[in-house]
Amino acid sequence: MAAARDAFLDQGYAATSMSAVTDRLGCSKATMWSHFSSKEELFAAVIDDLVDTFSSDIDEVLTSQTFSLPAMRRACLRFLECLMSEPSIRLFRLVLSEGSRFPEINEMFYQRGPAKVRRGIRAFYATRFCDADADMLTQVATSALTGFRSDILLRPEKPGPNESETFVDNLINLIDWDSLIPRADD
């Protein structure tokens, strides 16, 4: 997986072939083909591997948690930390740069990555709020945090360590928590 991940992230989707990955590994093409029937399948496995690492880092904060503002703050900060990891940034750039030529990688990435993470975040909000509010909070938080990441990536000078905390605190303070509807079983 590491060889395939590095090949896709270094060279891009279009320029990476199954042969290039086998060359990096020093294994036979027959061995590679016995594990993966296509480049798309290999790319899906790479995405799954990266997303599993990303998800486990976020799940560590969300698992067995019911909603609270401190838990939300911790989850948002962890989410930003994961978004700003080098593999996450490289995969994001790869999907953005090659997704228009290869729409299947957009779909594959979204279903295996962002959609999976959003389900976990939504489940966290659903521990306290009604379904509609859990959906809205998931959309607002993930959009704000991914937008903040995009802003950071475009800046010529990277922000200091406290800027992420300030952003998350401002996001939490902007939400009118009193207007949200608690779950019926609360």
Automatic annotation (TrEMBL):
Q: Look up the domain of life of the source.
A: Bacteria
Name of the featured protein: TetR/AcrR family transcriptional regulator
Source organism of the structure: Novosphingobium organovorum
Q: Which PANTHER family does this one have?
A: HTH-TYPE TRANSCRIPTIONAL REGULATOR RUTR, NALC
Query: Which ranges carry the HTH tetR-type domain?
Result: 1-54
Keyword Magnesium assigned to the entry: answer is: no
Tell me which Pfam families the record gives. Answer: TetR_C_7 (PF14246), TetR_N (PF00440)
List UniProt keywords, sorted A-Z.
Answer: DNA-binding
Under the heading Gene3D superfamilies, the entry gives:
Tetracycline Repressor, domain 2
Q: Which residues bind DNA?
A: 17-36
